Give the backbone structure.
Amino acid sequence: STDASEREIKQAYRKLTVVMHPDKNQDDPAAAEKFMKLNNAYRSLTDPEARENFLKYGNPDGPTHFSIGIPLPSFMSKGENGVMTLIILFVMVLVVIPGFGYCLYLSLYRSNKYEILSSNEKEFEAAIKSNNKLKEKDVPEIVAAAREFTIYMKPNLEPECENIGKELGVKTKDSFCYKPLVLLQAFVRKIPIHNAQMLQDQNFVVKTSARVLSYLADLASKSPVIVEVLKFSQKFYQQLKVNDSPLMQLPHMTKEAISKLDASRTTFRDFISRSPQDRNLTSLFNESQAKDIEAAIAALPKLALEVTCGVEGSEGVYEGDILTLKIKGTIVRSNSDEADYVEEAPSAAHTNAFPQAKQEILWVIVSSEMSAEKCSSFRISRRAKNFTKSMNIFAVETGRMTFTVHAVFDCYQGLDATESVSVYVRRAAKRRVKDYSEDPELNEPSLVENIMESIRGKTADEEAELVEEEGEKKKGKKHKGKKKDKAE
C-alpha cells in the first residue's frame, strides 16, 4: 500500500526476512536473489536517496550501465537545435575524420609516378638541391634513407649483415638506414649472402633503389650533381666496383681476361667498335662464351654527338642576341634489324645480374662555364636512331661562351659522349640587318635597339678610347719597370 507508515514497512520487512532468508530455503536456488530484491525494496521505501535512484533509474543503487557523453555547448544541447547537432556530428564522423586519415595516408604512403613514397620527396630534395658538392660516394646513403625500407622491412639485424657491414666499412650501425645500405653495397660489389631473410630483403632493396635512382636523377636534372647520381647508377645496374674496368659489364669477363686482351690501353667505346676479328675473343673464351660476349656488344648503343651554336641569319654573335644551341645525336646498334625496328619502343638495357628488366635511358646534360651551379638536361627513354634538340640562350655579356654537352646512359659505364662548342660574343654596335633605303623611317633604331644601347651605356667610339687608355697605362708601367732595373 502506498499509504503504509515507516513502522508498518519495518514490521513487514522483518517478517519477510525470516521467511525468505536463504538459510531457510536451501532447496530454492533463487533464494539469494529473492532476498537481495527484498533488501533493495526495503531501501527504496526507507532511504530517500535510494528511493530517488529507484524512481529515476529503476535501481536503488543508481545507474548500472556504462555510457559515454560528449560535452556540447548549451545551445547545441537544446531540443530545438538537435537537428543541427546531428548534422555537425554526421559531417565530423563521415567527412572530417576520414578526410584527415586520407590526408595522412597521402603524406606518408602515397606513391608518385616513380612508385616511391611521397613522404621521401622533402628529404631527397634537401639532399640533392641544397648540396652542389654531392659526390658519387654519397649517393648510396641517400638511396638507403628511403622510407620504404623502414616501413616494409623488419628492423632486426642479422649477424651476417653486421659482418658484411664491417667488410664494407659501413660505420652508421645505429642508423635506420644501416641494413639497406649494407644490402645495397653488397649487391653492387657482388658479395654473396647466405641468409634467406637477408636475400629476400636485398631483392626488395635492389628493386626499390632502381626507382629511387630514377627519381633522384630527375630531381637533379637542373644541377651538375646529376652526373654524380648517374655515375653510381651505372655501377649499380652493372655491379661494378670503383676501380673495375667497363669491360666487366660484358658476360664471362674477368680481370685476367681483360689484361690478356690488352683492352686496358683503349676505351670501352673503342673496344666495342672493333670488328669481331680484331677483338679475337675465341683466343681466351670458348665458342659459346665468345658468342655471348659478341651478342652483348651488338646490343650496346654506340653514340655520336654533333653540337653547333650560333645566331640564325647572322654570321657574328653580338651582346643581346639569342643563340641557338643545336644538339644532334646518332645511336647505332650492331644488332639493329631494319625489319624489326620500332622507333618509339622502349629499349631494354643489357645487364648481367639485375633481377628485373631495365629500360635504357639516355640523359643529355648541357652546362656552361658562366653558370657552374646550374645546367639544363633532357632524357631520351625511347628507342631512337637519331634525336635532335634545340635550345635558345641569351647572350648577356661580351666574351667567350663555352657550352659542354654530356650524353650519359644511366645503366652503362664507358659509353658516354661529350662535345663542346664555343662562341665569342662581341659588344653590340649600331648595325642594321637590312637597309630599308626606300623608307627612311624604318632605318631609325627600333625600341629594342634603343633599350640595349641605354643598358650598355657605351658606344663603339667610347670602347676604343678605353682600349687606348689601357694601352697607355701598360706603357707607363713598363717604363717604370725599366727605371727600377737601371737603379738596381
User: Anything to note?
Assistant: The beta strands are 302-310, 317-318, 322-332, 362-368, 371-380, 386-394, 399-409, 417-426. Residues 337-345, 457-461 have pLDDT under 50 and may be disordered. The longest strand covers residues 322-332.
